[in-house]
Structure formats: C-alpha cells, structure tokens
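Hello,

Following up on my earlier ticket. Below are the two sequence lines again, exactly as submitted.
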Amino acid sequence: MTTEPPVLIKSISQKDNHTFTIEWSDGICNDYRLNLLQKNCPCAKCFDVSTNQQRIGTPPVDEDVRAKRITNVGRYALRVEFTSGCSTGIYSYAMLRKLSNTQTQVKQQ
Amino acid sequence: MPLPMFKPPEEQPKRTANRIAHTVAIAAGKGGVGKSSITANLAMALQRAGYSVGVMDTDIYGPSIRQMLPEEQMPEQIGEMLVPAISKGIKVISMAYFRQPGEATAVRAPIANGMVTQFIKNVAWGNLDYLLIDFPPGTGDIQLTLTQQANLTGAIMVTTPQEVALMDVRKAANLFHQVNVPILGVIENMSYYQPTPSSERVYIFGKGGGKHLALEIGAPFLGSIPIDPEICQCSDNGKSLFLDQPVQPPAAQAFIDVAQQVVAHVTTLNRISKECLSSFNLIWKEMP
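Thanks for your patience. The regenerated structure is below:
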C-alpha cells in the first residue's frame, strides 16, 4: 500500500480580524486571509469547471471581509460563513493546501 | 442443504472472541448500484494486498454475495456460533447459506432484524483486518441495527453517476451522519465505458455525479469503477477479476486503486481519533 493518507486539520484558530491559521496533521501551519479565500470561491456560481477559472462578472470581494464562523464539512473540507459576498463555497483541505503552496511560491518570487 | 438457523441450547459451546480491526459498511440506500459487487471485489483487492478479510452480507431478502464469492468451505454451526464460509481466502456469511436457491426469505422486519443481530453477534470471525458489511438498500430497521450494533469504523457510500441514484445515496449518507458513523468516502460505480484502453471514455450515466456527491457530503472520493463486461462475467460465475500477475486488467486495477484509498482513509480515521479534529465550529470574534 503506497497511498499516503490525506492531510487533516490538527487545530484551527483565528489569528486576527482577517486571517485564520490551520495546523495540519503533517505539522505544517498555514495562514488563510479571508478575502483571498473568497476570491478563490469554488462554488458553481463563482468557479467555472470547464475553464478551471473564476467566472467573469462575479461580484468584487470586499478586502475587509470577515467571517462569522468556520465549520467543517465532514472530514474533507470547511465552509466559511463570510460577513459579505458568497458563502456557499466548500473549501476542500486539498484546495486549501494548494492555495497555501501558491501563496508561498508567490512570496518566494 | 441449507443450514438451520438455530440449535438447541444444550449444544451451545462458549462464544469465540473476535478481533476485528476495522468494520466497514458498504451502503447506498438504493438497490442496483452495485453494493454487493463492490463489496466482493473490494474484499478480493484487500485480501490480495495481504489483509485478512471477512464479508457479511446483510441483505436478508436478496443476498447475492454467495454468487460472487462461492464457498470452498460451507459455514458451520457450532452451538450458537456460526463459523463463516471460506471463499478465495475470504470469510463470508450470508443469508444465502440458510435458504435453498430460489427460496424467498419471507419474514417480517423483526425476524429479519433478529437474523442480522445473529450475524453481528454470533459469527466466529476470529482475527480480521477488515470486515466489510454489505448493507441492504434503504435506511430502515436493519440499517439502524447495523449502525448501532456493528461497531462500524466507517461507511463507504456506493453510487452510480445519475441524479436518481444520488438522491437515495444522500439519504443513506445522512443516516450515517445522524448516528455519527464517519463516511470513509464515495465510490462511483458504472462510471464510464471504455471499449478499449486507447478509446475515449463514454459516460453513459453522466459524468462527475460521485465526485459531486463526495464534495457535497464532505467525504473523500475513493474512485471510479468502470462498466466492464469482465466484472459482470466474473461476478456471475464467481470468479476472481484479479490476475496472478503485476499488470491487472483495467477493472481489477480500479478496485486495487479504490482498496488503496480505503486503507489510506481508514488509517487516517484511526489517526483522527488520536490527534486530529473530526469536527469544528470556529466562531469569529472581533480582535483589537
């Protein structure tokens, strides 16, 4: 058996008014800024699976957007209830890890 | 001859201790999506990977596991305990052993429930890495009994891609949520047809239904099983889909991949109970 078990959340906490922190089961910690998450909303209204891109014409994201609550969706994803804009997206852990990798790469450049 | 279900109390020996590491439900809520064929082939894939596997067919009214996993050794009743049948190295118990072929199990729900309880409590499985429980369709009495009594590690939801199937599978998933049985993931059966390895896949029942369901219920997607005449022929004839060689036919490989995912997610579940959050509700607060 060679398949690695998927990465899960060990702890999740609010860092400041716009950011939360996830400690993953493999020891990596990532910060997630709420406005960036909403810009990457994966719901069918915001994300076009056929082009693999955010849809043109989705309402602009408030840079000051905050959360009301963040809850798990099974063992696989989380859902953020934002104070404004789209809250229907289900952010899979795989997607969150991918997002944090992209952000890290951008910072390194 | 089918086995009698009961023997007089004076013949009953002591219960055998079972050590079952993981008990996994294979459920759908709907009939005809291929729960039994998934159970049988998943059992064979796990067994090939070196795990000791048992299969409990709890479809009292329409057991089909025996056809797919014909016994080399019949089950035996010793007192109140049932020693399971053996098929291809897999321990199997099914209502099919207690009825003549073609004979209907015409019993009311409390009796059927009692039979399932016997399967849970009175089968001498011995040591098993995986016990796969092939659930009957629906979300009724038998399913509730199983979720309450079978000490389930988790449940695998089987679906076909079309919305009509997904509707019922959602309900079955909801049942497991209600009784706090973690869903290990979703397997999409009859996903596509590919006449030859080089030809394009044809999505006869639609595309992506299983993945969509997995995302919706917050469970991992464990894999897709194609429509393949080999699966049907092997199931009907009680033969193994798997070859004794490293390179497997596509359908067998699909089950091997799914089995790897199942093992990975069971491992994860074990870890969750020790160190990870199985659920959370972070309420946002205004910070200075």
